[in-house]
């Protein structure tokens, strides 16, 4: 396929929704279409951002990590990723598949940790600026189902140890924001993995076709 511009695709959802596996599926589809891509994750994706990821998810420093500090850390990580990876990739016609992005901050820091939306929006305006996704694929899963999956997967990290109501608040924010985002696809990720992946494949391929048409006629 010939495309006019590279695209920025983001996978979103609560922990255990299946984002990481879905990223690999999207990569497989892009490869089939001879599209050059990179996969990144958030927080993370650069050496500094990966260090930030460890602080947020794993390291216990015998010091309380304030919720607003986490917010600043995820945006610091995002700044590094945008400037050092996303910006150059898009410039060089390389597509980006990102396991989480800015929507996670509104869902987790806003919904989960109850930080005022205006503070998050303020940081978004400064840091994300025009680097918004062309497509967000949101994997919707009931927190009870997601928790079962991550328990089977292994040891829970600091964020995953939160209670069900924390994840219910996060899911509500996701559902609300996704319903207003015309550049998004909602996937029922409660179903069996092969059904979920078939749904992603169908919807994403349709979106890809439209991109191609827009590239030719736009
Ligand atoms: N539809 C599904 N049904 C059952 N299990 C699933 C499904 N999708 C993914 N899983 C399993 O759930 C676990 C979490 O999947 P995955 O790591 O892709 O999710 P994630 O959203 O990236 O999670 P996290 O955000 O916690 O890293 C894995 O063990 C995976 O095999
Ligand atoms: C980008 C971002 C992430 N988080 C949280 C959400 C998850 O619990 C972890 C990332 O782990 P995953 O295995 O890659 O899903 O970080 C957050 O709270 N705020 C954010 O902006």
Automatic annotation (TrEMBL):
One of its GO terms (biological process) is dTTP biosynthetic process. The keyword rRNA-binding does not apply. Phosphorylation of dTMP to form dTDP in both de novo and salvage pathways of dTTP synthesis. Residues 11-200 form the Thymidylate kinase-like domain. NCBIfam families: DTMP_kinase. PANTHER family: THYMIDYLATE KINASE, UMP-CMP KINASE 2, MITOCHONDRIAL. It catalyses: dTMP + ATP = dTDP + ADP. ATP binds at residues 13-20. GO terms for cellular component: cytosol. This is Thymidylate kinase. Keywords: ATP-binding, Kinase, Nucleotide biosynthesis, Nucleotide-binding, Transferase.
């Amino acid at each position: 396929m010939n495309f006019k511009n590279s695209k920025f695709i983001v996978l979103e959802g609560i922990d255990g929704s299946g984002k990481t596996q879905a990223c690999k599926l999207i990569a497989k589809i892009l490869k089939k279409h001879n599209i050059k891509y990179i996969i990144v994750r958030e927080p993370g994706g650069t050496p500094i951002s990966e260090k930030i990821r460890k602080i947020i998810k794993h390291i216990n420093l015998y010091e309380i990590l304030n919720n607003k500090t986490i917010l600043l850390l995820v945006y610091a990580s995002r700044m590094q990723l945008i400037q050092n990876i996303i910006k150059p990739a898009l410039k060089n016609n390389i597509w980006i598949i990102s396991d989480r992005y800015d929507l996670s901050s509104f869902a987790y820091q806003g919904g989960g940790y109850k930080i005022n939306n205006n503070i998050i929006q303020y940081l978004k305006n400064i840091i994300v600026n025009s680097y918004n996704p062309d497509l967000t694929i949101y994997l919707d899963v009931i927190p009870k189902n997601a928790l079962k999956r991550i328990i089977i997967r292994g040891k829970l990290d600091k964020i995953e140890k939160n209670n069900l109501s924390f994840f219910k608040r996060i899911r509500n924010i996701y559902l609300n924001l996704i319903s207003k985002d015309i550049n998004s696809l909602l996937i029922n990720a409660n179903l069996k993995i092969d059904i979920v992946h078939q749904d992603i494949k169908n919807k994403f391929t349709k979106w890809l076709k439209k991109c191609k048409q827009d590239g030719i006629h736009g």
